[in-house]
C-alpha cells in the first residue's frame, strides 16, 4: 500500500493515509471488532526537509517599499522583528506590551490560544516601540485593527503580503510565515 501510494503521492500525503487508517483501526478495536491495531507498528515516512526560505534585509526593504498601506508595513515589520506568528500578531492587545521593560507577552485569552498553549515573552524592538508609542491604545484593545474596529483576517494579511512580494518581483514561494524564518535567520 505504502509503496503504491508513494508512486503517486508524496510522503506527507501517504502519512495522512496512514494516520487515517490508524484512527479507523483504533475505532475498530474500541468497538471490539478487532483485537489489536496493526497500524500502530507501521512507522510514518520521513518527508524530505527543505531549507526554510528567508528574506535578505534588501529583499525585506523591497517588500516594505512595495506595500502601499502603512498598517500592513507595520505588521510585516512586527513579524520580522519579533518572530511572532500571524495569529499572535492579529490577536495582540495593547496590555501585552510593556513599554518600560520593552517586552511583549504573548498570552492565551478567550479569543486566542498560542500554538504551544503557553505564554511567552519577546523583546520589543526599538523601532517598533517608537511606532507603537504613537498609536498606543487601551490595554484591552487589539493593536492591529483594520477598518471599523475589525481585526485583520488571515487572508487579508496573506494576500497583501503576496501582492507586495509580486510587486517587488521576489521569489513567489515567500509567504507571510517566511517572515518568522527571516527573524530567526537574521538572529543567526
Q: What assembly state would you assign to the polypeptide chains in this entry?
A: single chain
Q: Could you describe the largest sheet, including whether it forms a barrel?
A: 3 strands, antiparallel
Which H/E pattern describes the elements? HHHHHEEEHHH
DSSP summary: helix tally: 8
Residue-averaged pLDDT, rounded?
A: 91
Provide the spatial order of strands within the biggest beta sheet: 1-2-3
Please give the radius of gyration in angstroms.
Answer: 22 Å
Strand % is 5-15%
**Which residues sit in consecutive blocks of at least 5 with pLDDT less than 50?**
none
N- and C-termini, Cα separation? 42 Å
Tell me roughly what share of residues is in helical segments: 40-55%
Helix-strand makeup class: mainly alpha
Could you tell me the number of beta strands? 3
Tertiary shape: globular
Please tell me about this protein's structure.
The protein is mainly alpha-helical and 188 residues long. The protein is 47% helix and 5% strand. A 3-stranded antiparallel sheet has the order 1-2-3, with no helix packed on it. Strand 1 and strand 2 form a beta hairpin. Helix 3 crosses helix 7 and helix 4 crosses helix 8. 19% of the residues are buried.
Amino acid at each position: 500500500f505504502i509503496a503504491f501510494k508513494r508512486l503517486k503521492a508524496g510522503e506527507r500525503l501517504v502519512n495522512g493515509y496512514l494516520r487515517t487508517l490508524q484512527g479507523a483501526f483504533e475505532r475498530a478495536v474500541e468497538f471490539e471488532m478487532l483485537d489489536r491495531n496493526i497500524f500502530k507498528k507501521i512507522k510514518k515516512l520521513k518527508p524530505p526537509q527543505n531549507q526554510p526560505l528567508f528574506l535578505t534585509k534588501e529583499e525585506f526593504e523591497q517588500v516594505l517599499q512595495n506595500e502601499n498601506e502603512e498598517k500592513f508595513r507595520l505588521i510585516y515589520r512586527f513579524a520580522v522583528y519579533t518572530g511572532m506568528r500571524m495569529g499572535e500578531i492579529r490577536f495582540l492587545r495593547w496590555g501585552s506590551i510593556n513599554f518600560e521593560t520593552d517586552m511583549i507577552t504573548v498570552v492565551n485569552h478567550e479569543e486566542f490560544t498560542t500554538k504551544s498553549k503557553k505564554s511567552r515573552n519577546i523583546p520589543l524592538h526599538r523601532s517598533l516601540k517608537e511606532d507603537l508609542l504613537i498609536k498606543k491604545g487601551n490595554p484591552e484593545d487589539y493593536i492591529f485593527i483594520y477598518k471599523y474596529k475589525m481585526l485583520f483576517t488571515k487572508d487579508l494579511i496573506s494576500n497583501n503580503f503576496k501582492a507586495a512580494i509580486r510587486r517587488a518581483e521576489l521569489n513567489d514561494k515567500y509567504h507571510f510565515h517566511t517572515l518568522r524564518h527571516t527573524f530567526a535567520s537574521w538572529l543567526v
